Amino acid sequence: HVQLVESGGGSVQAGGSLRLSCAASGYTDRRYCMGWFRQAPGKEREGVARVSRSSKTTYADSVKGRYTISRDSAANNLYLQMNNLIPEDTATYYCAADFSDSACFEARYSYVGQGTQVTVS
Asked: Is 111:5 a contact under the CB 8 Å cutoff?
């Protein structure tokens, strides 16, 4: 079982930046993919960024060039640097993990954190 705890959300004005962090524990001896997805009220889940088991990073078109995902494998931490934020980025952001790269790519994660709110005005 993988436990995930996010931090770093908050409120920011358009054009600002935030950095989300996620601390993972459990099954650290197995390689798993990790990513971030977001969900706003009344909208579908959107996978925004992910790091595959082979450390390949991919992004949703809506955040490409503005967001950067990184993973500190030694410490089992995941980060999301969000720059040039726009109001449409407002959502609850979730850190997630899975042992399947395809599941990560489709944002169908087996393990999900509690979420952290990001509000852009």
From this structure: no
Structure tokens at 116: 């952290």
The three-state DSSP-derived secondary structure of the chain is CCEEEEECCEEECCCCCEEEEEEEECCCCCCCEEEEEEECCCCCCEEEEEECCCCCEEECCCCCCCEEEEEECCCCEEEEEECCCCHHHCEEEEEEEECCHHHHHCCCCCEECCCEEEEEC
pLDDT digits (tens, 9 = 90+) for 85-101: 999 999 999 999 998 98
Q: Cα angle at 93 between 82 and 30, to 5 degrees?
A: 95
CB atoms inside a 10 Å sphere around CB 120: 18
